[in-house]
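Journal club prep — side note

Before the paper discussion, L.F. wants everyone to see what a predicted structure for a comparable chain looks like in token form. Sequence:
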Amino acid sequence: MITTEQFKEICETQVDWNKVFGTFRDVSEDPGLKSNSDNFFRSKAFELAVCCCSPFKYVDEDGVDFHMDYNGETIRIEQKALKGFFYGNGKCKQVKMKNYRGDVSEAAFNRYKTENKFDFVMIVDYKNHKVAIASRETAQKCYVSKGDGVFSMFTPSDMTILDLDLDYFAFPSSKIRLSCIINETIVNWITER
């Protein structure tokens, strides 16, 4: 089984974080993607950005976003993108890991604390340009039940932070708004039917 340090090295050396963060910025600042109804689309764009710039295969399964082959073994990765995950005062924002979907029972919480859906969670803080990873076991130790879901209440010591040299990042951008392309595509699809 891959270790957290081995996964960290892959994330540091085989993911183009410069392009990922540039894409995240363009998507998060797109004025046509600001409504609550765009949340799922932004999340998908963030996941696809990492997929396009890494050895990760996008799978979009329940509880796992990517697969990665490591010496013949499939590593399952769950991604969470948060604007400002690291507060800077030694605290982290809570991360919603599961939605109860109406079943807020203690049995449901205990089931989530033991399920084996992912091997690593990767948290991308696109405001502070930082990436943190944690094993499933670590994430589940930090689980708390709150409202309609299960959250991980990480501290920085729970996480492994990637060493990224931001001095070499240009954060490439596009003048073309993704929201415009989406709207154009939908209109073309409707009118050409």
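L.F.'s comment for the group: The longest strand covers residues 73-82. Keep this in mind when we get to the figures.
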